[in-house]
Design goal:
The chain is α/β, with parallel strands linked by helices. It has 5 helices and 6 strands; from the N terminus they run E-H-E-H-E-H-E-H-E-H-E. Strand 1, helix 1 and strand 2 form a beta-alpha-beta unit.
Amino acid sequence: MKFMEDLFISRNDLSKMSGYSLASLFAITPKLETSHLRNCSLSGVIINNMIKECIKRGVKMECMEYLDIYDNDLSKMSGCSLALLFAITPKLKKLNLQNCSLSGVIINDMVKECTKRGVKMECMEYLDIYGNDLSKMSGCSLYTLLFAITSKLESFIICYYS
């Protein structure tokens, strides 16, 4: 699997998958460019644990350009983990976090953590956080996200309808 470039496991129930197993999958697929994890019943806890495990093992997804986590419940994901996700995917161009139950607080914390660690999404061209309740996202965080962390962003989708 070390030559796999595309992974499509959307619409599968991964709610019982551990963060360790997900990190192992990324460790054995170093050439992975595209990962579709849409509507997989992933939780913020699983993603937090996956990121911690990747950091612990030194796993970097150097080739990852597109990550689609659309329609998973990431409400328990920490802003720190989200920032570290960007640190382990330095070439990420497109990220879809639409309808992931993210809060403005998580985004605020992610921006603070990115700033603290010097994490920049220098390749990011497309960021979709549509359908999340970002009502508590600060204007300062929005500005920092758009102009300091993702300075090359071409498309930013942020609408929220309740």
